[in-house]
Amino acid sequence: MTAPDIGHIFVEPPARATRVPEPPPAPEVPGVEVVIDGATVTVPAGSTILEAARSVGIDTPTLCYLESLTPVNVCRVCVVEVTGSRVLVPACSRKVEPGMEVQTDSERVRHSRRMVLELLGSSVDLSLAGPVEPDGDLARYAARYGADASRFGATHARTVAQPVKVDNDLYVRDYSRCILCYKCVEACGEDAQNTFAISVAGRGFGAGISTEFEVPLPESACVYCGNCIGVCPTGALMFRSEHEMRVAGTWDPAAQVATDTICPYCGVGCTLTLHVQDNSIVTVSSPIESSITHGHLCVKGRFGFEFVQLRPKGDAEGWPRA
Predict the structure, then answer these.
(1) Is the terminal CB of the chain with fewer CB neighbours within 10 Å at N or C?
(2) Do 37 and 105 touch, CB atoms closer than 8 A?
(3) Which residues are registered as beta bridge partners of 72?
(4) Is residue 19 part of a domain?
(5) Does 243 share its domain with 191?
(6) pLDDT tens per residue, the chain (322 residues)?
(7) Is 239 inside a domain boundary?
């Protein structure tokens, strides 16, 4: 049986759309008006006091806060005074409310921050503390608030007394510099790696970062992603290469050049920042603003750079090595 003749009518199929569909518009977030240091500021609903203060250029010190981690409110350096509140509140986690009045530099706030910095400096070695968000450092903040840790005298706190732990080839742990900011715990947990290899154990001066049942790191659940190093603000955790160079007196940040590249190990496309000194890669990090990594990496991305610097067979001495 043949198909009936309908006059040889041919209907063209509809042309395929070639335009890439646009995402739906983001819902408008209502603004919230708050008063910060006497000035009225409008910020999106759900913003924290810290975000509101930074939006108008107020330099609020933080230690335990990082944009890519859940706020844990333990360092208390970012506390501010909120009208009607009995106690100072942590700016990093307290959400703004309509009509809220905030003072970020009152005498009460300055006294609290000075005391926190002094207590930390009296019990922990902060000499290697790195930059503190957004653009300051501990030394500058100590000077700003007149913090003088020496007025507490010599300290015998357990945190200062413990030796450096060197038990693997990738990184070392110097808990005499640890301020228990919980950043490494958060990065090892739900916020990044989901390994849960470390946590805070003990109380008071006996509190410290510990593996499960205090087993040596190579026997723990650690996968050596190094994300704990990437978030540590005081140098308690660092690359073994950096540690050995510091001991040898060859570590020179002023002579280092940072170069961004893409990790070659897989197709995810993580951004690596290579820190190079004397033509050798000495450490690797990742920008926190990267939409792929948010500052976090795996073991290959953070530590797998040795192949770049391996000396070819038969090559002359002097080939750069980390």
Answers:
(1) N
(2) yes
(3) none
(4) no
(5) yes
(6) 555 555 566 666 666 666 777 878 777 767 888 999 988 989 998 899 999 999 888 989 888 888 888 888 888 999 999 999 999 999 999 999 998 999 999 999 999 999 998 888 888 877 777 655 544 577 788 888 988 888 877 655 556 667 888 888 899 998 888 888 999 999 999 888 899 999 998 887 778 888 888 888 888 999 999 899 989 988 889 999 999 999 999 999 889 999 999 998 988 889 999 999 998 999 999 998 888 888 899 999 999 988 887 666 555 455 444 4
(7) yes
For residue 210, report the phi and psi dihedrals to the nearest 5 degrees.
-140, 150
Same domain, 194 and 306: no
Give the separation between CA 101 and CA 112, rounded to whole angstroms: 19
Task: Give residue for tokens 């995402």.
Answer: 23
Is the domain of 207 the same as that of 282? Answer: no
Q: Which residue has the tokens 């110097």?
A: 174
How many whole angstroms separate alpha carbon 35 and alpha carbon 101?
5
CA distance 70 to 190: 9
Q: What angle do CA 95, 101, 103 make, to 5 degrees?
A: 95
Q: Residue 94: is it exposed, middle or buried by C-beta count within 10 angstroms (0-12/13-18/19+)?
A: buried
171 shares a domain with 221 = yes
Angle formed by the axes of helices 107-123 and 138-145, nearest 10° = 130
Tell me, yes or no, whether 71 lies in a domain. Answer: yes
Maximum C-alpha span of the chain: 106
Six-digit token string for 107: 């005498």
- As beta bridge partners, residue 271 has 262
Contact 92, 62 (CB under 8 A): yes
User: How far apart are alpha carbons 53 and 61 in whole angstroms?
Assistant: 11
Q: Which pTM value belongs to this model? A: 0.79
Task: Identify whether residues 79 and 45 lie together within a single domain.
Answer: yes
Q: Which domain holds residue 243?
A: 156-248
In CATH, what number is assigned to the domain containing residue 261?
2.20.25.90
How many residues make up the chain in this entry?
322
Smallest CA-to-CA distance from 181 within 132, 141, 232 is with 232
